[in-house]
Amino acid sequence: MLEVDNIECRYGKINVLHGVSLNVGQGEFVTLIGANGAGKSTTLKAISGLLSPVAGRITFEGEDITKASPRRILEMGIAHCPEGRRVFPYMTVQENLELGCYLRRDWKQMARDLDSVFDRFPVLGERRDQAAGTLSGGEQQMLAIGRALMSRPKLVLFDEPSLGLAPNNVQKTFEYIMEINRQGTTVLMVEQNAYAALEMCDRSFLLESGCVTLEGKGEDMIHNPHIQSAYLGME
Ligand code: ATP
Questions:
Q1: Rounded to the nearest whole angstrom, what is the distance from the C-alpha of residue 114 to the centroid of ligand 1?
Q2: pLDDT at 50
Q3: Residue 7: is it exposed, middle or buried by C-beta count within 10 angstroms (0-12/13-18/19+)?
Q4: Which residues lie with the beta carbon below 6 Å from any ligand 1 atom?
Q5: Using CA positions, which residue lies closest to atom 19 of ligand 1?
């Protein structure tokens, strides 16, 4: 479904991705793990068109999207749930959700999808007219997930969905993402918590200093000695 082939990205003159390749199959749950600054968010930004790779190629369902606009990429079915939530603080909860489907015109289905976000996250329904910036961190995370789903994506890119959440909210968020995947949406998720990321996924890629250094099934990666010592805190 998604093929990232040898991409290089830079900020100004500094190269941060040095030939990253990964792939995600239809219906899969794939995670991207690695230390701070390894280039995980940059990889997601390149896929969703927020950053243009200086080399390499990205294809989605056979179409080259390397230089496509973020709008075109969203239209094709890729939604990005960014790190740090990035909700629009002065807009209401409902307006934030509606922005998630600004390209859609199927009004009736959009209203049903809005209701299903409120069913899933009742607190968002209770606060639908409240400015998003006044929600708690966990509520903003729910809103960011709901907003990404409002475009009815085929593939969702989640960037650190557990960041800053209390442990019970972390679990709830992960369960929800697994459910979204079980219902047929393909997921590519960046996650700092390597253990959780490897336990949940079908396959994972390890990014180190802008390069993919290891890939495999989550269950195999969990038993890899390098992963265990460097990312799982085991000796
Ligand atoms: P983290 O887990 O800390 O979010 P990451 O793996 O997602 O890390 P990136 O955010 O992709 O890492 O950053 C990769 C490198 O690019 C880092 O060295 C970072 O400082 C640098 N970088 C990221 N964004 C910018 C930017 N807008 N301008 C300049 N450098 C940047």
A1: 33
A2: 93
A3: buried
A4: 11, 16, 34, 36-42, 83, 192
A5: 37
Paired residues of 30 in beta bridges: 188, 203
Residue nearest to atom 25 of ligand 1 (CA): 11
Q: How far apart are alpha carbons 189 and 74 in whole angstroms?
A: 17
- Which pLDDT tens digit goes with each residue over 33-53? 998 889 999 999 999 999 999
Angstrom CA distances, 50 to 9, 70, 111, stand at 11, 6, 28
Structural domains of the chain sorted by starting position, each given as residue range(s) with its CATH number in brackets: 2-232 (3.40.50.300)
Residue 235 has pLDDT above 70, yes or no: no
pLDDT(107) > 80: no
Exposure class string for 199-223: b at 16+ Cβ within 10 A, else e: ebbbbbbbbbebebebbbebeebbe
pLDDT digits (tens, 9 = 90+) for 143-159: 888 888 888 899 999 99
Distance CA 4, CA 20 (A): 7
Question: What ipTM did this prediction achieve?
Answer: 0.92
Q: Which two tokens stand for residue 205?
A: 């890629």
Determine whether 63 is exposed, middle or buried from the number of CB atoms within 10 Å of its CB (0-12, 13-18, 19+). exposed
pLDDT band at 184 (very low <50, low <70, confident <90, very high): very high
